Amino acid sequence: MLKTNAARLLDAAGIQYELIPYDYTEEDLSAQHVAAELGEDIDRVFKTLVLRGDRTGFFVCVIPGDFEVDLKVAARISGNKSCEMLHLKELLPTTGYIRGGCSPIGMKKPFPTYIHESALLYDFIYISAGQRGLQFKIAPQDLIDFVGAEMYPI
Questions:
Q1: Domain 5-152 has CATH 3.30.420.40
Q2: Higher pLDDT residue, 59 or 154?
Q3: Measured in Å, how far apart are the chain's first and last C-alpha atoms?
Q4: I need a labelling partner for 104 at 20 to 30 A (CA). Which of 34, 39, 58, 151 fits?
């Protein structure tokens, strides 16, 4: 299995993780599909969303796989009056990642990152390892510390 750039960054920082492959299809890149493929609870599978705030620009929300981002909450926690999801065509040029393989680790530039507080309920969570079909199994506190994330409630 080839290591992703995100995995190399974690290796360089001495952070422990596991790379977990799974089968995917272009038709279903959902976190629910990932959870089913991994045989894990959807609450442990987190998705990475990139948003644009009206004041601060780009920021990242990492939320449980069965959640939808609340744009009002996302705007408030990020210091914005309003925000919107990044358009799909902007994802690769902005982050270096494609839909279904976007990781909060190793984006082209470090963006403010907000992780849902439920991540701390678990000894490990799953997040994208930076490509479709590959997840990190990582301790949430290690992820929080590495990306300099802030925690936020619902």
A1: no
A2: 59
A3: 36
A4: 39
